[in-house]
Amino acid sequence: DQQVKQNSPSLSVQEGRISILNCDYTNSMFDYFLWYKKYPAEGPTFLISISSIKDKNEDGRFTVFLNKSAKHLSLHIVPSQPGDSAVYFCAASPYTGGFKTIFGAGTRLFVKA
Amino acid sequence: EPEVTQTPSHQVTQMGQEVILRCVPISNHLYFYWYRQILGQKVEFLVSFYNNEISEKSEIFDDQFSVERPDGSNFTLKIRSTKLEDSAMYFCASRGQGSGIIFFGPGTRLTVL
After folding, report:
1. Going by DSSP bridges, is the β-strand pair A102-103/A86-93 parallel, antiparallel, or unpaired?
2. What is the pLDDT of residues B79-103, one digit of tens each?
3. Quick check: B109 pLDDT over 90?
4. Chain B touched by A94 (CB under 8 Å)
Protein backbone atom coordinates (compact mmCIF):
# COMPACT_ATOMS: atom_id res chain seq x y z
CA ASP A 1 0.00 0.00 0.00
CA GLN A 2 2.04 2.93 -1.33
CA GLN A 3 -0.69 5.53 -1.46
CA VAL A 4 1.44 8.02 0.47
CA LYS A 5 5.11 8.20 -0.41
CA GLN A 6 8.00 9.93 1.24
CA ASN A 7 10.90 9.17 -1.04
CA SER A 8 13.65 10.68 1.09
CA PRO A 9 14.42 8.46 4.08
CA SER A 10 16.61 11.15 5.62
CA LEU A 11 17.52 14.81 5.38
CA SER A 12 20.31 16.75 7.02
CA VAL A 13 20.27 20.55 7.36
CA GLN A 14 22.22 23.19 9.22
CA GLU A 15 20.64 24.95 12.17
CA GLY A 16 18.95 28.16 11.06
CA ARG A 17 18.43 26.99 7.47
CA ILE A 18 15.22 25.80 5.87
CA SER A 19 14.17 22.14 6.00
CA ILE A 20 11.92 20.96 3.19
CA LEU A 21 10.26 17.58 3.52
CA ASN A 22 8.35 16.19 0.58
CA CYS A 23 5.42 13.85 0.19
CA ASP A 24 3.53 12.45 -2.80
CA TYR A 25 0.21 10.67 -2.88
CA THR A 26 -1.57 8.62 -5.48
CA ASN A 27 -5.17 8.44 -4.28
CA SER A 28 -7.15 11.34 -5.74
CA MET A 29 -9.81 10.78 -3.09
CA PHE A 30 -7.47 12.11 -0.40
CA ASP A 31 -8.43 15.62 0.53
CA TYR A 32 -7.06 16.10 4.02
CA PHE A 33 -3.35 15.97 4.73
CA LEU A 34 -1.38 16.01 7.95
CA TRP A 35 2.22 16.09 9.13
CA TYR A 36 3.31 14.34 12.29
CA LYS A 37 6.60 14.42 14.14
CA LYS A 38 7.87 11.38 15.98
CA TYR A 39 10.65 10.87 18.48
CA PRO A 40 11.95 7.36 19.27
CA ALA A 41 9.75 5.40 21.69
CA GLU A 42 6.99 8.00 21.54
CA GLY A 43 3.74 8.27 19.62
CA PRO A 44 3.43 10.53 16.57
CA THR A 45 2.64 14.13 17.48
CA PHE A 46 0.41 16.20 15.23
CA LEU A 47 2.18 19.20 13.69
CA ILE A 48 0.08 20.80 10.99
CA SER A 49 -2.64 19.92 8.49
CA ILE A 50 -4.17 21.19 5.29
CA SER A 51 -7.38 20.50 3.46
CA SER A 52 -7.60 20.31 -0.30
CA ILE A 53 -9.43 23.62 -0.59
CA LYS A 54 -6.21 25.38 0.40
CA ASP A 55 -2.74 25.41 -1.06
CA LYS A 56 -0.89 26.70 1.99
CA ASN A 57 -1.21 26.58 5.74
CA GLU A 58 1.18 28.21 8.15
CA ASP A 59 1.77 27.77 11.87
CA GLY A 60 4.79 29.51 13.28
CA ARG A 61 7.95 28.02 11.82
CA PHE A 62 5.97 25.31 9.98
CA THR A 63 4.30 25.77 6.61
CA VAL A 64 2.62 23.09 4.55
CA PHE A 65 2.15 23.53 0.81
CA LEU A 66 -0.27 21.48 -1.25
CA ASN A 67 -0.17 21.05 -5.02
CA LYS A 68 -3.28 19.04 -5.85
CA SER A 69 -2.61 18.77 -9.56
CA ALA A 70 0.79 17.23 -8.85
CA LYS A 71 -0.51 15.25 -5.86
CA HIS A 72 2.37 16.64 -3.87
CA LEU A 73 2.75 18.33 -0.53
CA SER A 74 5.71 19.65 1.36
CA LEU A 75 6.52 20.77 4.87
CA HIS A 76 8.84 23.73 5.32
CA ILE A 77 10.51 24.37 8.63
CA VAL A 78 12.26 27.69 8.94
CA PRO A 79 14.46 28.35 10.74
CA SER A 80 15.39 24.76 11.58
CA GLN A 81 16.45 24.04 15.15
CA PRO A 82 18.32 21.04 16.63
CA GLY A 83 15.16 20.13 18.57
CA ASP A 84 13.42 19.58 15.23
CA SER A 85 15.53 16.46 14.69
CA ALA A 86 12.97 13.64 14.52
CA VAL A 87 11.11 11.48 12.02
CA TYR A 88 8.42 13.34 10.10
CA PHE A 89 5.43 11.46 8.73
CA CYS A 90 3.11 12.69 6.04
CA ALA A 91 -0.44 11.33 6.29
CA ALA A 92 -3.61 11.57 4.24
CA SER A 93 -7.28 10.72 4.57
CA PRO A 94 -10.01 10.46 1.93
CA TYR A 95 -12.19 13.18 3.37
CA THR A 96 -12.21 15.40 6.38
CA GLY A 97 -13.49 13.09 9.10
CA GLY A 98 -12.62 9.97 7.08
CA PHE A 99 -12.03 6.83 9.06
CA LYS A 100 -8.71 5.69 7.68
CA THR A 101 -5.62 7.90 7.69
CA ILE A 102 -2.70 6.52 5.70
CA PHE A 103 0.89 7.30 6.63
CA GLY A 104 4.02 7.59 4.53
CA ALA A 105 7.22 5.83 5.48
CA GLY A 106 8.69 8.90 7.17
CA THR A 107 11.71 11.12 6.67
CA ARG A 108 14.33 11.36 9.38
CA LEU A 109 15.44 14.98 9.79
CA PHE A 110 18.82 15.81 11.31
CA VAL A 111 19.39 19.43 12.21
CA LYS A 112 23.06 20.11 12.87
CA ALA A 113 24.09 22.79 15.34
CA GLU B 1 -4.30 19.22 27.66
CA PRO B 2 -6.27 16.02 27.05
CA GLU B 3 -4.23 13.10 25.79
CA VAL B 4 -4.54 9.48 24.77
CA THR B 5 -3.04 7.11 27.33
CA GLN B 6 -1.94 3.52 26.85
CA THR B 7 -1.03 0.67 29.19
CA PRO B 8 1.26 -1.11 29.57
CA SER B 9 4.18 0.76 28.08
CA HIS B 10 5.97 -2.52 27.43
CA GLN B 11 4.51 -6.02 27.22
CA VAL B 12 6.61 -9.15 26.88
CA THR B 13 4.84 -12.38 26.03
CA GLN B 14 5.51 -15.89 24.81
CA MET B 15 4.50 -16.89 21.30
CA GLY B 16 0.98 -18.29 21.27
CA GLN B 17 -0.17 -16.34 24.31
CA GLU B 18 -3.01 -13.84 24.30
CA VAL B 19 -2.33 -10.18 25.00
CA ILE B 20 -4.63 -7.26 25.62
CA LEU B 21 -3.39 -3.75 25.00
CA ARG B 22 -5.34 -1.00 26.68
CA CYS B 23 -6.05 2.57 25.73
CA VAL B 24 -8.01 5.47 27.14
CA PRO B 25 -8.87 7.80 24.26
CA ILE B 26 -9.50 11.52 24.68
CA SER B 27 -12.81 11.77 26.52
CA ASN B 28 -15.06 13.51 23.97
CA HIS B 29 -13.64 11.73 20.93
CA LEU B 30 -15.85 9.39 18.95
CA TYR B 31 -13.44 7.68 16.53
CA PHE B 32 -10.80 5.26 17.74
CA TYR B 33 -7.90 3.63 15.99
CA TRP B 34 -5.08 1.16 16.40
CA TYR B 35 -1.89 1.52 14.40
CA ARG B 36 1.36 -0.36 14.68
CA GLN B 37 4.96 0.29 13.78
CA ILE B 38 7.39 -2.56 13.35
CA LEU B 39 10.89 -1.39 14.23
CA GLY B 40 12.26 0.88 11.51
CA GLN B 41 9.18 0.61 9.34
CA LYS B 42 6.17 2.77 8.60
CA VAL B 43 3.20 3.42 10.85
CA GLU B 44 0.55 0.97 9.62
CA PHE B 45 -3.21 1.27 10.01
CA LEU B 46 -4.84 -1.69 11.73
CA VAL B 47 -8.42 -0.78 12.52
CA SER B 48 -10.86 2.06 13.10
CA PHE B 49 -13.84 1.93 15.45
CA TYR B 50 -16.90 4.14 15.59
CA ASN B 51 -20.30 3.83 17.20
CA ASN B 52 -19.32 0.55 18.88
CA GLU B 53 -18.32 -1.23 15.74
CA ILE B 54 -15.37 -1.61 13.41
CA SER B 55 -15.63 0.90 10.57
CA GLU B 56 -12.58 -0.20 8.65
CA LYS B 57 -9.74 -2.66 9.01
CA SER B 58 -6.57 -3.50 7.13
CA GLU B 59 -5.44 -6.87 5.83
CA ILE B 60 -3.12 -7.09 8.84
CA PHE B 61 -6.15 -7.15 11.14
CA ASP B 62 -7.02 -10.82 10.73
CA ASP B 63 -9.03 -13.16 12.95
CA GLN B 64 -6.29 -13.12 15.60
CA PHE B 65 -7.09 -9.48 16.35
CA SER B 66 -10.14 -7.99 17.98
CA VAL B 67 -11.08 -4.64 19.46
CA GLU B 68 -13.52 -3.73 22.14
CA ARG B 69 -14.83 -0.72 23.98
CA PRO B 70 -15.89 -2.46 27.18
CA ASP B 71 -17.02 0.71 28.95
CA GLY B 72 -17.27 4.44 28.31
CA SER B 73 -13.58 5.10 28.54
CA ASN B 74 -11.41 2.14 27.57
CA PHE B 75 -10.58 0.85 24.12
CA THR B 76 -8.69 -2.44 23.88
CA LEU B 77 -6.83 -4.44 21.26
CA LYS B 78 -6.63 -8.20 21.81
CA ILE B 79 -4.26 -10.50 19.99
CA ARG B 80 -5.47 -14.04 20.57
CA SER B 81 -2.38 -16.09 19.78
CA THR B 82 0.70 -13.93 19.36
CA LYS B 83 3.31 -14.61 16.72
CA LEU B 84 6.91 -13.45 16.59
CA GLU B 85 6.02 -11.03 13.79
CA ASP B 86 3.48 -9.28 16.03
CA SER B 87 6.40 -7.68 17.86
CA ALA B 88 5.97 -3.95 17.26
CA MET B 89 4.93 -0.64 18.81
CA TYR B 90 1.16 -0.45 18.97
CA PHE B 91 -0.36 3.00 18.96
CA CYS B 92 -3.88 3.85 19.96
CA ALA B 93 -5.37 7.04 18.54
CA SER B 94 -8.60 8.97 18.68
CA ARG B 95 -10.35 11.72 16.79
CA GLY B 96 -13.15 14.11 17.55
CA GLN B 97 -16.30 14.72 15.56
CA GLY B 98 -15.77 17.07 12.64
CA SER B 99 -11.99 16.99 12.85
CA GLY B 100 -9.54 15.18 10.61
CA ILE B 101 -6.75 15.23 13.19
CA ILE B 102 -6.04 11.99 14.97
CA PHE B 103 -4.19 12.12 18.26
CA PHE B 104 -1.88 9.31 19.22
CA GLY B 105 -1.00 7.73 22.52
CA PRO B 106 2.58 7.02 23.56
CA GLY B 107 2.41 3.42 22.38
CA THR B 108 2.82 -0.05 23.85
CA ARG B 109 5.93 -1.94 22.87
CA LEU B 110 4.95 -5.59 22.38
CA THR B 111 7.75 -8.13 22.39
CA VAL B 112 6.86 -11.70 21.45
CA LEU B 113 9.49 -14.29 22.40
Report:
1. antiparallel
2. 999 999 999 999 999 999 888 899 9
3. yes
4. no
DSSP string, chain A: --SEE---SEEEEETTS-EEEEEEE--TT--EEEEEEE-TTS--EEEEEEETT-SEEEETTEEEEEETTTTEEEEEESS--GGG-EEEEEEEESSTT-S--EE---EEEEEE-
- List the single residue in A38, A51, A99 with the smallest CB-CB distance to B50: A99
The string over A74-101, giving b where at least 16 C-beta atoms fall within 10 Å of a residue's C-beta and e elsewhere, is bbbbeebeeebbbbbbbbbbbeeebbeb
Query: pLDDT tens digit string along A17-48?
Result: 999 999 999 988 898 999 999 998 899 999 99
Those residues of chain B whose CB sits closer than 8 Å to some CB in chain A are 4, 31, 33, 35, 41-45, 48, 50, 55-56, 89, 91, 93, 95, 97-107, 109
User: Mean pLDDT across chain A, nearest whole number?
Assistant: 93
